[in-house]
Amino acid sequence: MKESEIRPKALLQEYLRLAEIDSRQLDVTKFVKIACPACFSDNCQLHITKNNYKYDLCHDCGTLFCNPRPDGEVLDRFYDSAESSKFWSNEFFPHVAEPRREKLFKPKANRIFNIFSEKGFFPRNICDVGSGYGIFLEELKKNFEKAELYGIEPSPEMAKISNEKGIITLNASAESSAEWSHRFDLVISSEVIEHVFSPEQFVISIHRLVKSGGYALLTGLGYEGFDILTLQERSNSIFPPHHINFLSIEGFEKLFKKVGFSEVEIITPGELDIDIVLGSGLVTEFTRLISKRGDKTIAEFQDFLRRNKLSSHTWVIAKL
Ligand SMILES: [Zn+2]
């Protein structure tokens, strides 16, 4: 898979341009200072600045996070009204929905099915938190044929479309979904944790949805991936105030254990790190040489990153 297949360059550039304009609309004087959102250490220092937003690095667990940051209410309003958010749902996402179904959602559903089949775990019901139009649930249904599927989606428009497809969808955020407490064998959330004001409150909400003996599976961006480690503030993944949390492997582990999960397993099955670095315009001796060595070396290098938890696309599999 190539990055351009799921994020066409022109659309991505326009989205990032709008996000940068949006990021200047927020009142920086009202931002709040936080401790590390993964391990709660104060041993953190300014590491990079992007579009005038500061990101600290936690010297205890290695998490990168925007600090100070807009509070939860400001962020909720931002997501409702920002031009970049509208562009994402009205232009970007519809354009890439079908390629993403084939390239991302189908293989992801297959992988999830394989992971839990190997554990001998066959969920009777599954909830997708941040379920959007329900496309990922439709793909999951093909693997988990007997499972009942549910969605939780904060956008009223998306929740409506999802309900019309016959997927029971709660129009709420994870944090306000208490009415569905302790209901699900498996709770999934894709690419939400990097956006939220408090990863702890978010993981608590996920934990609350899971039944005793059940599992949560969260996917999102982590800091310790080759692309982000290499590109730093040049990384297109780091853009405020949309992406504000980049937990380390240790940070993910500590947070999920603190919230009450008994087993926490982390994998980084990402496929794009090296493609993103090579496509970024950054030229180093390493990028020059690996490009010259060609596709086989590049593929083997990405495989090495995957196997050693060095891709930024992170999955947390946590048992209650
Ligand atoms: Zn930390």
From TrEMBL:
SUPFAM superfamilies: S-adenosyl-L-methionine-dependent methyltransferases. It comes from the Bacteria. Signal peptide: none annotated. The keyword Cytoplasm does not apply. GO terms for biological process: methylation. Keywords: Methyltransferase, Transferase. The keyword Methyltransferase applies. Gene3D superfamilies: Vaccinia Virus protein VP39. GO terms for molecular function: methyltransferase activity. InterPro entries: SAM-dependent_MTases_sf. PANTHER family: METHYLTRANSFERASE TYPE 11, TRANS-ACONITATE 2-METHYLTRANSFERASE-RELATED. This is Class I SAM-dependent methyltransferase. It comes from Leptospira idonii.
